[in-house]
Amino acid sequence: MNAINAGERDQQRQRRGLQFQNVFLGWESWDVNESQQSVPEHQYASKNPILVHHLDPLDVDILNQRHAFDLPSQAVCDALVDVFFKWIAPVLPVINRHDFMRRYRNPQNPPSILLLQAILMVASRFYHNAHSSENGAISPRTFYKKVKALYDAEYERDPTTVLQAVVLLGIYWDGPDDLTESGIFYWSRLGIALAQEHGLHQSENYVALSATQRRIWKRIWWTLYTRDRSVAAAFGRPLHINSEDCTVEPLDESDFIEYDGQNGSSTDRTPALFFMQSTEDSRMKGAAQSILYSTFYTIVCQLHLLQAPVSSKEAQSSAFHAATSIVSIMETMQSKGELKYTPSFIICHAVVSFVTLRSQMEASTPSLLHAIRQNLEANLDMLEVLAHTWPIAGMLLEYFRTMTGPEHFERMLSTATEKCGKRARGEENDSSTPLRSSARFKRPKLQQVVLPQTRVVLQILQRETQKQSNSQGPLHDKSNTGVEMTL
């Protein structure tokens, strides 16, 4: 009996090892009579055994248990690939679109399943379809498990393809747990380590490469470089790339040339201009420009928060303008239906804007207090929209709403009105500007200015929370802990 069961298991393992759907045009369905199990509609099979011959049978079995070779229908895959190259590739330009699409349409030479699943993973977050969440089949977490399983099994042997998939894994973010050892920081560090192992950071290693490979290596390296900076800045973590070790030339527009058989070369300059933003005439319109301006205003707010609460009236005014501009930019993108496609760092922009506005609610001018409240409410509305794409925004939204209740606002408005009346009667001087500390202000080092924005945000939140606790009672400990874990 044991021998028979073992033989049946071996036969089933061999059949399941062929599940990777290879035919992107025909999309031949799996014969359910062969598998002895009914397969959901989104699963497909292939008849190409060479795809798994280099793997241990146990690894193949694990990959099939993870459904790592299963793909959605052709229509869904086409939609997800289109979303990726339209909304994500400009931010993460690590894949040659024309080369990928040529293989995507070629049944005899399809793209790597690891890279394809990684693309589907990233794009599925921005795929808004009534059937996209059925049975969890088309969700970032579902695809993430497939990509991770393929990576762990060392299914892909081409180092460039592995690097491309790891870069895409680095933007997976569903909750606080995805910031730790299995999330953003892990994959970002891993991508940098792999790139340096293969010499992507040193120009002499590019000499023997073809022009196409040289372009894609440079784009991968500088994507990792910018991601290293943005992740460190967003979460207050140390940098992992030392600029002094990098000898690769900066990107230029020629690095974004992608040849195809029809046009000779790519004519879409948007990815290059968005990623580089290097010349005066590269200030294009649309979502890309909005995100760039939003990033600038976020930095202005952060520099102000680093000096709070002893910042000058001019600094407070600049910070208020920057924070409201961030809200306005998000509202503009929302009006055009583009906010749901924005990268994850837009959440950081929203958080910094909220904290900046919330820190100025002690303003003694009723009109300014009204403006702050309106922008805070608009900020929360935008976070609610973002929560449909990035679940982490929902956690922040729930926490921030506890800090902007109408009762608290009415008390502050009453106090501001009373102070305004006293000043009008000459009973009180204008004290809206905080007194300067007698101690000389020491400007932080540049690294401290760039990196620990999250720590600054937490400090401001904790200070404002303490003020609210003194006037309204303590907040729930659970909410506090959740935000600290998140940020």
From TrEMBL:
Annotated spans, Disordered: 419-439, 464-487
One GO BP annotation of this record: DNA-templated transcription
Biased composition (Basic and acidic residues): 419-428
Pfam families linked to this entry: Fungal_trans (PF04082)
Domain Xylanolytic transcriptional activator regulatory: start-end pairs: 184-256
Keywords of this entry: DNA-binding, Nucleus, Transcription, Transcription regulation, Zinc
Single GO term (MF): DNA binding
Stated name of the protein: Xylanolytic transcriptional activator regulatory domain-containing protein
